Amino acid sequence: MTKQTSELLDDPQLQEITGNINSELVERRKYIPPVCPVFSKSYTMLKEDGRYRFEIDREAEKQLPKIISNKVQAVMAADSPDASFREKYCRKRTVGIVFSGGPAPGGHNVIAGLFDAAKKANPETKVYGFLLGPDGIIENETVEITQRIVDEYRNLGGFGMIKTGRTKIDTSKKMSLSKETCKSLKLDALVVVGGDDSNTNAAFLAQDMFDDGIQVISVPKTIDGDIQVRDADGNVLCAMSFGFHSAARAFANSVGNLCTDASSDVKYWHICKVMGRVASHLALEVALQTHANISLIGEDLADYVDKRRIERAEKAGTVDYTAYGTTLRHLSRVICDAVVRRAAAGKNYGVAVIPEGVLEFINEIQVFITKLNTIIAEYNKTHDKGFHADFPMLEDKLEYLRRLARRTSEDGGLSAWNTRDDDLFKDIPGFFQEGLLTERDSHGNFQFSQVPTEKVLMGLVKDYLNILKERGEYKVGIQKDYFRKSLEREHLNPDKYGPALFRNYGTAEFLIVKPSVISVKTLKQELVREGMIGENDPVPPAVEKIFRKTIPSFKTQTYFYGYDGRGSDPTWFDCTYTYNLGLTAFSLIANGATGQMAAVKNLEHGFSQWEPLGVPIAPLMHLEERGGKLNLVLEKSLVDVNAPAFRVVKALREKWLAAVPGEDNFRKPAPICFDEECAEDRPLTLKLNALGKSGI
Fold first, then answer.
1. In which order are the strands placed within the sheet that holds 94-99?
2. Global model pTM greater than 0.85
3. How many helices (H) and strands (E) does the chain have?
4. CATH topology for 251-356+452-467+643-693?
5. Is 49 a catalytic residue?
6. Which of 103, 457, 526, 610 sits at a 20 to 30 Å CA gap from 36?
């Protein structure tokens, strides 16, 4: 007899099946990551390492005088410290921690590492989490972190324990409120977990709270992988921010599934935009993880030089400055070439990986972004309402730009926008104009995730593929044996029709229809001309069927991989890395450091070589244009096109394109795993860079 719904809902087995807890979650929570050898001791100490040199920005020296002279500090084991050291190290403390910016897998383990180390040193130490990011500091919204809370979130993704936010503590009022909060809680130290802007915030907080005796330690977080710390001589102090590996693996698993689908259904090009607003590290790692047919790396595009245009300019006695750097037109042609070549090998399908910020490396687009950023920032600065509030519709914005261009032309002065800019902007599709004029983020940056980059590129690609189709240059190759069987089935001689139909008959495994044959009408004309049929004879059905199979249809499916990856559970690498970052943060606090970034050196090597460090934040700061004005910020790290990882991808591009008969070279990424025995021990980009320099 079937149970009633109420009975079914009361069934313990049903409650277990439909509950929030599964067996893997239980195992994840139980897992204890390994710790660096120095943390196996009861105490740690700091030792200044004078081998590292930094080029100090004068503005950083001026604005951050109390922490600008900080040195790199190695975390060392203190085997037999004296009583005064032990007393200082183990004193009762109150520590605050805050997440800032977007989530990144592993953040909870930073808290777990900090909490475990703090409680081990003194069980009476209190750790407070500021809720909803820096707003929690400004508004004094906290939760005391307990053993129960920590255990609930160990090794899990997201920032759900205390949430996060994007507020910046960038005004004197916000700074004053933050200091007031820290004093009211009697904080000894504050740990800021975040990206480049958050680390910048940490430096200014350390400066402002220096005389109050409140230590500030930062932890490098960003899935984009664009926090990579080197000294002035190129020595790597922090090879990668946490969260990158987990997000890249999450994206790679999804893209890998699409590789499987593409080679199964053989009719779609899957266009995968991968998060990375400024740097293309994620796209590079996904390329290595999946061997996608096309993988664009923005930093590589920026180095492109059009030699033919340079030569033409030299012959004309001029200089073509636009020949340096990739244009949208050139980039679309690169993609078209790959699509056409694969189609010729019978593969009118594939997978392409595109970094979110690829447009930032396109000359004409970067010029527009820079100019529009300045215009919007200046407008917001000089008017009561913001640019987007005053001009809510696209046409309103365009009319403002037109007026600006006319005024510049009439006045004869210099402006961020002139009539030439206006004319060029008109040629851009409306949806892309709207994207370029979209509201900037809280830092004044252009929001690439809000622009359909893939739509912009694919629109150009489709247009040019149609031109190539009309020229007879874009065709699907037909397997020679299939052609032979198809004609013989209809009692036709393939060796008779083959030379009339194909330009490479008898010399290739995949046959390509002659460029002049682009329709059934031109097919008939060619057969008549070759004497295969008479003027009034129809095209044999088998021949027409073969011809129609050579007509390509460029079908695309587009995807954006971003938020799903940053919400992923952490890999073993990120579980271990972040737990040790938490332990490092406490070691810095217990030894009196401030204005330092908790870091782990030698991430590019195996775990046995990891070395916890404190890296000074202030010497890493430099002036950069943000929101139309210069600000001190932590520099983002771009993909190094001279590094081994990129050089390997570049060398293997042709192989992964697989524009030849035979199987594709797709790689199936393994599932995300937190067990050291089955896990990938570090990102492939780091592994290759280590291999290419001094060996793994």
1. 44-48, 73-77, 611-616, 596-601, 215-220, 189-194, 94-99, 126-130, 142-144
2. yes
3. 29, 19
4. Rossmann fold (3.40.50)
5. no
6. 103
